[in-house]
Amino acid sequence: MTRRNSSLGFFGLFGRSEDLRRLDAALRSVDLHPALVPEGVKLTIVNLMKDHWPDAEPPPEAYPPLAGLFAYCAVGPEAFAAVNGTDRVNDVEARIEHALDGNGGIDAQLVLLALHARLMHPEIIARFELSVE
């Protein structure tokens, strides 16, 4: 499978790629500073998005919901709610429940990524009884 636009720009010569800039902006919009997410994790997120949208680049509107889910996993419900509100918390928690019910998809992949990257907030691990087996 070939990838469209490299996530590193053109060998890093022309700056940060558009997909990583969009992800960074989306993370900022939910109050998770992009510097707190390792580059390898961000690259994995954009590659998962490209896998989810195999025939085209992920649309710009796809980034904020995924960044919100990832931020919730990283900072926990209290800090996420303080900035994003309880409606957004309820939405993200419903998405996690749906993903954990065997519905998979990109939400399940992001939860698994946060867990494996050791970026998952302990309260989220306990709340959803998550483990790496």
Number of helices: 7
**Shape annotation:** globular
Average pLDDT works out at 89
- The computed structural class is mainly alpha
Biggest pleated sheet: none
Helix proportion range? 55-70%
* Domain unit count: 1
Low-confidence runs: 1-9
What is the CA–CA distance across the termini? 29 Å
CA radius of gyration is: 15 Å
Our estimate of the beta-strand percent is under 5%
How many beta-strand runs? 0
Order of helices and strands: HHHHHHH
Protein architecture, described:
This protein is an all-alpha fold. The chain has one domain (18-127). 62% of the residues lie in helices and 0% in strands. It has seven helices and no strands. Helix 3 crosses helix 4 (77-84), helix 3 packs across helix 5 (86-103) and helix 5 packs across helix 6.
Based on the model shown, name its key terms:
single chain; mainly alpha; 133 residues; 7 helices; 62% helix
Helix and strand arrangement:
Elements (H helix, E strand, L loop, with lengths): L17 H12 L9 H14 L10 H13 L1 H8 L1 H18 L1 H12 L5 H6 L6
Helix pairs in contact: 1-2, 1-3, 2-6, 3-4, 3-5, 3-6, 4-5, 5-6
Would you kindly provide a brief summary of this structure?
By secondary structure, the protein is mainly α.
